[in-house]
C-alpha cells in the first residue's frame, strides 16, 4: 500500500538516472583486467547492466579485485563521471576477503538500512534460516546512492526487483539532501 505523498514523490522524481556498476571479484579481475562492459563470465554484472540500460543510463562499469582501496577509488571514479546510483555486486560474504559492506559503510553519510532488511526478508522467504549469511546494504555518499548486492545472480535479480522502481524516488530525496 502506498501513500499519496509517496505517489506524488514518484510522479515528480527524475526519470533520467545515471547508473554505474562495480563488480568485485579477485578471479575475474585477474582474468579480464580493465573492461568497459561486463565480460561473459560476470553473470551478475551482466544482469545489472541489461536491466539498468533498459530503464536508465549506464555510464560506467568496473571489474575490480576485493580490495578496500580499489573499491573506494572505483566509487569515487564513478561519482566523478556523474553516477547518481552505483550498484556493487560481490564481496558481501563473511570471509576475510569480503570487504564491500565494511568499506561502503565507512563511506556512507547516511545508510538506508531498510534495503538490507527487505533484502534479507525476501532471502529468508526463499532460503529459510540460511538467509542469516546474507549481507546487502544501501546508502548515500557524496550525493550518490550506492547499493551493495551479493555476487550471486539470484541475489542480484532479487535486489533489482526490490529497488529498481524506487530509484527515481530515492534520487529525488538525495538531491534534496544535497541542497541542504
Q: How would you describe the overall organization of this protein?
A:
By secondary structure, the protein is an alpha/beta fold. The chain has a single domain (15-178), classed as Molybdenum Cofactor Biosythetic Enzyme, Chain A (3-Layer(aba) Sandwich), CATH 3.40.980. The protein is built from eight helices and six strands; from the N terminus they run H-E-H-H-E-H-E-H-E-H-E-E-H-H. It has helices at residues 4-12, 26-32, 43-55, 68-80, 100-107, 113-127, 153-163, 167-178; strands spanning 18-24, 57-64, 85-89, 110-111, 137-141, 144-149. The chain has a six-stranded mixed β-sheet with strand order 2-1-3-6-5-4, with helices on both faces. Helix 3 (43-55) runs parallel beside helix 7 (153-163) and helix 6 crosses helix 7. It is globular, with a radius of gyration of 16 Å. It comes from Methanothermobacter tenebrarum. It holds the Pfam family MoCF_biosynth. InterPro entries: MoaB, MoaB/Mog-like_dom_sf, MoaB/Mog_dom. This is Molybdenum cofactor biosynthesis protein.
Amino acid at each position: 500500500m502506498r501513500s499519496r505523498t509517496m505517489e506524488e514523490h514518484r510522479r515528480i522524481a527524475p526519470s533520467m538516472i545515471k547508473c554505474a556498476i562495480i563488480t568485485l571479484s579477485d578471479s575475474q579481475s585477474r582474468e579480464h583486467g580493465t573492461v568497459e562492459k561486463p565480460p561473459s563470465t560476470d553473470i551478475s554484472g551482466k544482469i545489472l547492466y541489461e536491466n539498468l540500460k533498459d530503464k536508465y543510463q549506464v555510464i560506467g562499469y568496473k571489474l575490480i579485485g576485493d580490495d578496500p582501496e580499489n573499491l573506494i577509488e572505483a566509487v569515487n571514479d564513478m561519482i566523478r563521471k556523474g553516477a547518481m546510483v552505483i550498484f556493487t555486486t560481490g564481496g558481501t560474504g563473511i570471509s576475510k576477503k569480503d570487504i564491500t559492506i565494511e568499506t561502503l559503510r565507512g563511506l556512507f553519510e547516511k545508510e538506508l538500512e531498510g534495503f538490507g532488511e527487505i533484502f534479507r526478508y525476501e532471502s529468508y522467504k526463499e532460503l529459510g534460516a540460511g538467509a542469516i549469511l546474507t549481507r546487502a546494504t544501501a546508502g548515500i555518499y557524496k550525493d550518490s546512492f550506492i547499493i551493495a548486492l551479493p555476487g550471486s545472480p539470484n541475489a542480484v535479480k532479487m535486489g533489482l526487483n526490490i529497488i529498481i522502481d524506487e530509484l527515481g524516488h530515492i534520487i529525488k530525496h538525495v538531491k534534496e539532501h544535497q541542497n541542504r
